[in-house]
């Protein structure tokens, strides 16, 4: 099982990510140009048929993931960074800092993430909205997890040894606490990544993100729904692509975490 | 391995069949690490019912690994490369079957019992976990077993692990292991953090187990005296322990005329969770190069006193002076030279080292921070320190995960020495070491205090360790006082069957009386 995970992470993931990121270049036809009749089923020249405007679905699937992936990864990294920094500060400083930071985190957690995402979407441009919504919805969770872990490490022998040699608090946190928590942070980043992709695709699906005619998996789901009877592949292909990337990323993060955990 | 079918035929019979004896029978067990290097073995172990077998050997010799391999409970990174385990004449196949067998038949006490206690559960709940489901009288059994181990059930039953001292946590873990009277009991260093009075209680529990029908007991220990008292048979793993080396320099009994290295004045120490003071008005002077031991029952505040001096747990009143200079109460307020002057070695060798850092980096860091040494000399010094505590330079490249408990404790001591302290605070530093290594570490401290005039304040539960001190103090928990041993309230633990050497002060006083 673990060997399988390593294989997936080591070979398929870079391949998959490469295809998603370079998809626009690999696309056999212009993803935004009408090249054939509307709603053609799969056939020669169009392996996945065409959509309502006669565009090649295969080309659009190849080109339609990059924006989503880049936005999602950026949003997840931002959420993780904010959450880890907040968690370290709250867990290490304790007292007032702890109360203020966890209070803010709890407040944000009380608001449904989707509501936050919609609020962000109507006030901010698409990509920024994804980042803001992921940070507001995900960073509080990261903060709580990291804070609790830091608190349990505060009195460990190596932290006290560092204090006894007069390391500054920042040095103790960065040199002693953070390395021990890298597995935890990596696992948490995986969760944030999945949520970020969900938010990004949800906003695109609802029409707040990228605007037509740009190729985008979530947008394609919405655009191609009316023609599902004539060309089911036009809906199925972007859905599968979205699922595949999410699962592969989650699996990869998990494998890396376990791998690290055993020799760390 | 070819004999396995023959054994299965006799399985279930009351008598031993084909050389396989009743109880636990382990043949040719071998353990290798992830890289296939042999760690221990091949080794045979036989624990008949009603018997207690002790496994002894040098620290890092693979005692624990051998026993865990027999139970098929090795931690990740180690692998059983060969050997079979029989239980009452049946082979125990590795994997899920072994897990079921352990759950049904075995009680296990790990080497770091405090870490095995779930932090959010109460003592009563933790101990009750060890009691088989569906059997009556759980509450009574929990109370009885806690009392047997010298814990007041009314007082500790509702506490959570963070409010237990190291020795109390160990006894709670032991209580969990024995509460269900498991047919097979495996104890890994059950006495390492205990004061002599509590060790007596553990001895009592083990002697009683001998009379329980069908109860087999396996004890991993480095304490030869303990092994001889409880065990019917002693198995030695790894190299034979070398005879105890005489210290290079004869221990010097220092007079009061030496310059004072550490002076405590009117120190009041409260327990970490708050509550009435553990110690009040502690006045203590330690001369340069002097070794002073503090003994006292588990939970009496020995460790807390050291932490107060180290600045990790500020005292509620009083002052700490090192070489005539008063130190700020909190470690964060101390300047570099004050920090260098006092170094602390903790009780728990598992938590003492950062799992993410290699040993070399952990040892080089204090020299870099406190003495502003550049990277290369700090690294060289790290290797010298390793040699000084009796470890090979190769250890510098390892991470704590790959070290035994004893090796970790030596690294922790080496890290404290890297600062070049005037006062070393040592909290049960020898409790995780076998007798040979423990004395080697004490010899090392002896040597250091002779050469560098380093004062050592040592907290211990072990009379033989305390006997090597120049002066011994005992904590009287009832009056929260620190008293020199030999005075009215002699709180020093009783000698164990002549094993404990008496402290010189005590002898002197008794000679004077006679």
TrEMBL record, chain A:
Keywords: Cell membrane, Membrane, Transmembrane, Transmembrane helix, Transport. Its main location: membrane. GO terms for biological process: transmembrane transport. It is found in: Cell membrane. InterPro entries: BP-dependent_transpt_permease, MetI-like, MetI-like_sf. The chain crosses the membrane at residues 68-93, 100-122, 128-146, 189-210, 230-253. Residues 69-253 form the ABC transmembrane type-1 domain. It holds the Pfam family BPD_transp_1. The keyword Methyltransferase does not apply. One of its GO terms (cellular component) is plasma membrane. It is a multi-pass membrane protein. Belongs to the binding-protein-dependent transport system permease family. This is Peptide/nickel transport system permease protein. It comes from Marinactinospora thermotolerans DSM 45154. The lineage of its organism: Bacteria, Bacillati, Actinomycetota, Actinomycetes, Streptosporangiales.
TrEMBL record, chain B:
InterPro entries: AAA+_ATPase, ABC_transporter-like_ATP-bd, ABC_transporter-like_CS, ABC_transpr_LolD-like, P-loop_NTPase. SUPFAM superfamilies: P-loop containing nucleoside triphosphate hydrolases (SSF52540). Residues 24-264, 264-502 form the ABC transporter domain. Residues 240-259, 485-514 are annotated as: Disordered. Residues 493-514 have a biased composition (Basic and acidic residues). One of its GO terms (molecular function) is ATP hydrolysis activity. Keywords: ATP-binding, Nucleotide-binding. One of its GO terms (cellular component) is plasma membrane. The keyword ATP-binding applies. Signal peptide: none annotated. CDD domains: ABC_NikE_OppD_transporters. The keyword Nucleotide-binding applies. Gene3D superfamilies: P-loop containing nucleotide triphosphate hydrolases. It holds the Pfam family ABC_tran. PANTHER family: ABC TRANSPORTER RELATED (PTHR24220:SF685), IMPORT ATP-BINDING PROTEIN (PTHR24220). This is Peptide/nickel transport system ATP-binding protein. It comes from Marinactinospora thermotolerans DSM 45154.
């Amino acid at each position: 099982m673990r060997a399988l995970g390593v294989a997936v992470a080591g070979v398929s993931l870079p391949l998959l990510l490469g295809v998603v990121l370079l998809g626009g270049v690999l696309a056999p036809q212009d993803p935004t140009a009408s090249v054939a009749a509307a709603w053609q089923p799969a056939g020669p020249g169009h392996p996945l048929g065409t959509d309502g405007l006669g565009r090649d679905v295969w080309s659009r699937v190849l080109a339609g993931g990059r924006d989503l992936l880049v936005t999602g990864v950026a949003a997840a990294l931002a959420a993780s960074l904010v959450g880890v920094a907040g968690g370290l500060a709250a867990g290490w400083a304790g007292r007032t800092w702890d109360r203020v930071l966890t209070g803010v985190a709890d407040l944000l957690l009380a608001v449904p993430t989707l509501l936050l995402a919609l609020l962000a979407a109507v006030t901010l441009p698409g990509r920024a909205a994804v980042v803001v919504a992921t940070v507001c919805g995900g960073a509080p969770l990261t903060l709580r997890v990291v804070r609790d872990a830091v608190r349990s490490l505060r009195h460990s022998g190596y932290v006290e040894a560092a204090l006894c040699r007069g390391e500054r608090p920042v040095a103790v946190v960065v040199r002693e606490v953070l390395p021990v928590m890298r597995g935890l942070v990596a696992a948490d980043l995986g969760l944030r990544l999945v949520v970020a992709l969900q938010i990004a695709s949800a906003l695109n699906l609802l029409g707040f993100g990228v605007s037509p005619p740009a190729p985008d998996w979530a947008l394609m789901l919405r655009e191609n729904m009316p023609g599902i009877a004539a060309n089911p592949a036009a809906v199925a292909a972007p859905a599968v692509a979205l699922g595949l990337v999410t699962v592969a990323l989650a699996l990869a993060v998990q494998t890396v975490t376990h791998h690290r955990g055993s020799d760390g | 391995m070819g004999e396995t079918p023959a054994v299965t035929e006799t399985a279930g019979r009351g008598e031993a069949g084909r050389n396989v004896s009743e109880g636990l029978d382990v043949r040719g067990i071998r353990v290798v690490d992830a890289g296939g290097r042999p760690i221990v073995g091949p080794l045979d172990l036989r624990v008949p019912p009603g018997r207690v077998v002790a496994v002894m050997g040098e620290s890092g010799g693979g005692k624990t690994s051998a026993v865990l391999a027999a139970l098929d409970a090795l931690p990740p990174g180690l692998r059983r490369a060969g050997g079979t385990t029989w239980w009452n004449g049946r082979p125990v196949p590795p994997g899920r079957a072994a897990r079921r067998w352990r759950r049904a038949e075995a009680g296990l006490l790990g080497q770091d019992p405090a870490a095995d206690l779930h932090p959010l559960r109460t003592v009563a709940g933790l101990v009750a976990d060890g009691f088989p489901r569906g059997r009556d009288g759980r509450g009574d059994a929990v109370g009885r077993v806690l009392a047997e181990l010298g814990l007041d059930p009314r007082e500790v039953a509702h506490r959570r692990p963070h409010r237990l001292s190291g020795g109390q946590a160990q006894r709670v873990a032991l209580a969990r292991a024995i509460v269900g009277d498991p047919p097979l009991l495996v104890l890994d260093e059950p006495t390492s953090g205990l004061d002599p009075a509590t060790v007596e209680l553990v001895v009592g529990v083990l002697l009683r187990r001998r009379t329980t029908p069908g109860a087999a007991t396996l004890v991993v220990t480095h304490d030869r005296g303990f092994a001889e008292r409880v065990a019917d048979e002693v198995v030695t793993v790894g190299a034979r322990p070398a005879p105890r080396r005489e210290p290079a320099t004869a221990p010097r009994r220092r007079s009061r005329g030496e310059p004072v290295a550490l002076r405590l004045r009117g120190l009041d120490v409260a327990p970490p969770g708050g509550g009435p003071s553990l110690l009040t008005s502690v006045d203590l002077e330690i001369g340069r190069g002097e070794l002073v031991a503090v003994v006292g029952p588990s939970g009496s505040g020995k460790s807390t006193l050291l932490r107060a001096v180290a600045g990790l747990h500020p005292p509620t009143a009083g002052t700490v002076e090192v070489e005539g200079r008063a130190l700020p109460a909190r470690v964060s307020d101390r300047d570099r030279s004050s920090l260098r002057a006092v170094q602390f070695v903790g009780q728990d060798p598992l938590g003492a080292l950062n799992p993410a850092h290699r040993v070399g980096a952990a040892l080089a860091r204090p020299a870099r921070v406190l003495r502003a040494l550049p990277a290369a000399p700090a690294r060289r010094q790290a290797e010298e320190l390793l040699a000084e505590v009796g470890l090979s330079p190769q250890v510098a490249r390892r991470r704590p995960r790959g070290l035994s408990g004893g090796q970790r404790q030596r690294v922790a001591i080496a890290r404290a020495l890297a600062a070049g302290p005037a006062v070393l605070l040592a909290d049960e530093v020898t409790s995780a070491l076998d007798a040979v290594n423990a004395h080697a570490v004490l010899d090392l401290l002896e040597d250091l205090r002779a050469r560098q005039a380093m004062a050592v304040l040592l907290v211990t539960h072990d009379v033989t360790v305390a006997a090597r001190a120049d002066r011994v103090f005992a904590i009287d928990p009832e009056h929260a006082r620190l008293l020199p041993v030999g005075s009215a309230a002699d709180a020093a633990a009783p000698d164990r069957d002549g094993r404990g050497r008496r402290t010189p002060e005590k002898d002197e006083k008794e000679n004077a009386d006679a």
